[in-house]
């Protein structure tokens, strides 16, 4: 399928009121709640979005493989890098078509939709939204890291500059 055909399919898909409503909900959760950098760390969100994209891509690329469709909620990596990154991540997973279930006394996040179903399309929409947000989040994470580095090195650089100025002042007084 060419890019033009893909865009046409997405454009036609967005004409469906139910799909448009869900797409708007996914966008709102992602852009106005999860990407609120006053509440959520851009560094953690960058990792979270990367992990979610990996999960979603695995499902979309291997639709018949059950191993990509279920993850234990208490899996240390999933909990740390996805669920704990922002409170609203669970809302995003639910909007994308995931749901929770308990199996053998353990909570799991599960995606059971059939390929081509409406819920499958929600997963695709969420994947596209995450891909578009990934660059913004990574830019913000890079800026955040730079700001932290500047705060850490700023006082040291000021001290070095003052010491240099003092040495220059001493040298100029000696010459007089």
What is the tally of helical segments?
Answer: 6
- Indicate the percent of residues in helices: over 70%
The outline comes out as elongated
**What is the residue-mean pLDDT, rounded to a whole number?**
86
Poorly predicted runs are: 1-8
Distance between the termini: 81 Å
- Sheet-strand content, in percent, reads 5-15%
Write down the secondary-structure element order. HHHEHHEEH
Structural class category: mainly alpha
Structural notes for this entry:
- This protein is mainly alpha-helical and 176 residues long.
- It has helices at residues 3-15, 17-34, 42-61, 76-83, 89-95, 118-175, and strands at residues 70-72, 99-103, 106-110.
- It is built from 6 helices and 3 strands; from the N terminus they run H-H-H-E-H-H-E-E-H.
- A 3-stranded antiparallel sheet has the order 1-3-2, with no helix packed on it.
- The longest helix has 58 residues, at 118-175.
Can you lay out the helices and strands and say which pair or pack?
Elements (H helix, E strand, L loop, with lengths): L2 H13 L1 H18 L7 H20 L8 E3 L3 H8 L5 H7 L3 E5 L2 E5 L7 H58 L1
Antiparallel strand pairs: 1-3, 2-3
Helix pairs in contact: 2-5, 2-6, 3-4, 3-6
Q: Which keywords apply here?
A:
three-stranded antiparallel sheet; 3 strands; mainly alpha; elongated; 176 residues; 6 helices
């Amino acid at each position: 399928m060419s890019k033009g055909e893909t865009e046409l399919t997405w454009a036609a898909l967005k004409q469906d009121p139910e799909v448009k409503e869900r797409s708007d909900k996914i966008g709102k959760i992602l852009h106005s709640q999860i990407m609120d950098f006053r509440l959520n760390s851009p560094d953690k969100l960058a990792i979270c979005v990367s992990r979610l994209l990996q999960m979603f891509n695995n499902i979309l690329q291997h639709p018949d493989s059950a191993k990509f469709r279920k993850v234990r909620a208490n899996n240390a990596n999933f909990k740390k890098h996805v669920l704990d990154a922002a409170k609203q991540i669970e809302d995003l997973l639910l909007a994308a078509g995931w749901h929770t279930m308990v199996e053998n006394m353990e909570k799991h996040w599960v995606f059971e939709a059939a390929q081509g179903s409406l819920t499958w399309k929600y997963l695709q929409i969420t994947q596209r939204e995450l891909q578009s947000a990934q660059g913004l989040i990574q830019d913000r994470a890079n800026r955040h890291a730079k700001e932290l580095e500047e705060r850490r090195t700023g006082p040291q650089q000021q001290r070095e500059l003052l010491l240099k100025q003092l040495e220059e002042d001493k040298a100029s007084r000696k010459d007089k």
